[in-house]
Amino acid sequence: MPGRSFTGPGDYNTQLAGWLPRANSRLLRRTGQQPDVRVIDDRAGMGVLPPLATAVGTHHRVRLGRDYYVRIACNDYSVDPSVIGRFVDVHAGRQEVAVSCAGRAVAAHQRCWARSQTITDPAHVEVAAQLRTAYKARTAAMRGPMAAAGAQVGLRALSDYDDLFALDTPSPAATVVRPDLQVVR
User: Fold this and answer.
1) CA–CA gap between residue 87 and residue 101 (Å, rounded)
2) Is 150 left (phi over 0), alpha (psi -120 to 50) or beta?
3) DSSP 3-state of 71
4) Which end of the chain is more exposed for a tag (fewer CB within 10 A), N or C?
5) DSSP H/E element including 136
């Protein structure tokens, strides 16, 4: 339907339902019949539907990246950040995008049919902030206390390292003295 725009599947069906009576009132050039008469003939030639409903939507498995979003049809949907780095199963239906990890639901969003949108659950943002705070605290504890600005840092003599690693210290007689170099002991 060129020249038209739609906000979603419901809007498409509404516009199509409004257009069909006008389209069906026309006569087809090739047969001289109206399209709705031709549809009756087509339906008579069709077989019955299978007893099971066909699966609608897409399924795929991805490893959740550090940004904790999955991409479906040019849109990004947030996922619980506690499963970053793990494989998640993504199901995108007509109405909903659902994400699970090891059988546990980690995201559910209403499907967005626009392009280049980012759909974020505020709960996922909160969990991400908590995980960042915990990570910063953990790394700060591993680093130990920081020296205050301007604090004096102790210096060790190099002979302390010789003693620690049981290195032989050269005798003064073995030391070569050059006039252009200054020897510091």
Assistant:
1) 7
2) left
3) strand
4) C
5) helix 122-143
Q: What is the pTM of this model?
A: 0.55
In one letter, which amino acid is 106?
A: V
Annotated domain spans of the chain: 9-45, 58-124
As given in the structure block, the two tokens for residue 60 are 């795929």
Supply the mean pLDDT for the chain: 86
Record the tokens describing residue 143, joined without a space.
């680093």
Q: Decide which of 33 and 112 is more confident.
A: 112
**Within 10 Å of residue 156's Cβ, how many Cβ atoms?**
8
- Alpha helix locations (H) across 52-121? none
List the beta bridge partners of residue 97.
Answer: 92, 109
103: helix, strand or coil: coil
- The whole-number pLDDT of residue 88 equals 97
Could you report the per-residue pLDDT of 81-122, keeping only the tens digit for each?
999 999 999 999 999 999 999 999 999 999 999 999 999 999
Structure tokens at 145: 């206390």
